[in-house]
Amino acid sequence: MKRKLLSLAMAAILTASLTACGGGGTSTESAAPAESAPASEAAAEDTAAAEGTEAAEGTEAAATDISGSTIEVAVTYTGDQATVFNEMVDAFEAETGVTVNVAEYGQDYENTMKTRMASNELPDVFQTHGWSLLRYKEYLMDLSDQPWMSDYDDSALGVIQDDDGSVYVLMISELVNGTLVNTDLCEAAGVDPYAIHTWDDFTEACAKIKESGVTPIGSTSNPGLFANYAGTFVTYEGEMFEDGAAQLDGSWDWQDYKNSLIKYMVNWIDSGYFYEDILTLVDSDLTERYATGQSAFILGNDPSVLVTCLSLNPDANYIFLPSFASTDSGVEHVGIGEGDTFGIWKDTQNEAAAKAFLEYMARPEVAVAINDVTGKLSCLKSSMEIDDSYGLSVFTTMQEKCADCNIFYDNLWDRQYMPSGMWNIFGDASNMLFDDTSEKGQDEVIEYLLENYQDLYAVAQEG
Which of 148, 171, 217, 381 is the most buried (most CB within 10 A)? Predict the structure, then answer.
């Protein structure tokens, strides 16, 4: 269904008149007689359609003022994501007469944007890739008066709203972070994934998976292994250690980290729960292996990986779970972060065109088309009404199946508790530990993390 929805949405967007379609008129299915669907569903579709039409009319009304304008839009997209985004841009240009120059920075995005911030020459519109408040706020325009603000789901505002109520970005999707599970492999090994609540439960499950002849944990050596679920060991209430205050004030010595997360990682590595060639693997290797059933779990990741895997193996069966707790009284954590966000440079000379572009991106059919290809979850209510994406499906299934679990929804751990710049340091530390799990190797990892944490914290304080 999700592929059909994407193609229908794309077809509607790329026709001569988007406003004639409205938010909910992108497929023949939505034109079915009212009695074919429950009243509640019909009402929801009407709401999405109305809101989408309002956004469309707003952009069209502004078109007479912005025709002939040129804006630069910087994005992280590559591959299929870039293809879909550029098709959206083409339709916006045709409708408004605005020229959009898309800068696709890909993996060089962060370094390129830091250089452009240093020279105070930023794109008119750019993605903030998780840092709208902590890194880009001083460069962004306050957008809290924009018409799409009322369309936000509450979970989204918790991530992007400043203390004074300001919002600096349009966020069309939110990132969710947890554990990805191949249920076919779990069933074959006699593992019930919904019975895993602690890291000890997870370790026992890995032992069973290993005995069945499959590598338990599919992963590259990457920063997420050291960052994305660290809070379940050393930060949140009820976990092994609750060091959040020290992490934020720069006094953390990382010894609790060594005695918890590092201890578990060493056990998993020495037990053969990771790929033997993990230090040479790249992301494409990971998705290919996971799609072909060579590992059961991926830790600290989001459902977009599963979208790629399903494109390689449509018959695979996956679920999404939280990151597990380190004690029976601890919390299982789902990290919530900015998904695809677009801010406007506060010094842009093309404010009207830039705002019109964001209004266009907020249309349900546009946002859902992009969210479908990225695998991220819609966070605008009008988009959620028509979103049949795989990511939203596995997330809501987790919420239903784990309704009685002690789940904690909060910002991504490193973004909230670590100074900017630690992400790549975590990646280096991961490589170091996979290369040497001895006591000496562990001490070197902790020393490396501590030194960089202190240096980066000092830089943050000076800034």
Answer: 171
Q: How far is it, in rounded angstroms, from Cα 298 to Cα 374? A: 18
Neighbours of 271 (CB within 10 A): 13
Pairing between β-strand 318-321 and β-strand 173-182 as defined by DSSP bridges: antiparallel
The torsion angle over the Cα atoms of residues 158, 163, 164 and 165, rounded to 10 degrees, is 0
Identify which has the larger pLDDT, 426 or 385.
Answer: 426
- List, for residues 78-132, the tens digit of each pLDDT value: 999 999 999 999 999 999 999 999 999 998 998 999 999 999 999 999 999 888 9
- How would you label 20-58 residue by residue, b for 16+ Cβ within 10 Å and e otherwise? ebbbbbbbeebeeeeeeeeeeebebbeebbebbbbbbeb
Residue 347's DSSP bridge partners are: none
C-alpha 258/C-alpha 242 separation (Å) is: 14
Per DSSP, the three-state class of 98 is coil
Radius of gyration of the chain (CA): 23
Amino acid at 253: D
Average pLDDT over residues 29-56: 40
Shortest CA distance to 358 belongs to which of 144, 68, 154?
144
Quick one: which of 434, 416, 425, 449 has its CA closest to 257?
A: 449
User: How far is it, in rounded angstroms, from Cα 18 to Cα 9?
Assistant: 10
Are the C-beta atoms of residues 193 and 186 closer than 8 Å to each other? yes
Strand partners, 181: 297, 319
Beta carbons of 226 and 291 less than 8 angstroms apart: no
Are 256 and 234 in contact by the 8 Å Cβ rule? The answer is: yes
pLDDT digits (tens, 9 = 90+) for 307-332: 889 999 999 999 999 999 999 999 99
Query: In whole angstroms, what is the distance from residue 53 CA to residue 21 CA?
Result: 8
CB-based burial label for 83 (10 Å; 0-12, 13-18, 19+): exposed
